[in-house]
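Protocol step 4 of 6.
Sequence for Guanidinium exporter (Parasutterella secunda) entered exactly as in the expression construct, tag removed. Do not edit the line below.
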Amino acid sequence: MLSTWALLMVAVVTEIAWGCSLKALSYFSLSRFFALIPIALTCANMYLLARVMRTLPSGLTYAIWTTLGAVGVLVAGALLFNESLTKGQIFFIGVCIVGVVGLHLCSKG
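Step 5 output, structure tokens:
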């Protein structure tokens, strides 16, 4: 069985995939069948997040999930969809990562 922290990272990856799937739907004008992908990712994501919250505090879990998800979608948008990232955005992405690492190091879970 995956550890709680590994499960949280899987939830983060599904969150990033969800954000990218929404962009892909609008970017590539895919068929209605592909609209099921974000719905399936949302269901998987919420299930994983709920499982993690059984063990870790909800505030810590949510803060890490949202921060890493947002950073991941920003980076994926730049890599997959040629969205621009400024030096300031890159700096603050780093600040977000430092904050998440700090939250992890200060947690008891």
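Step 6, annotate. The chain has four helices and no strands.
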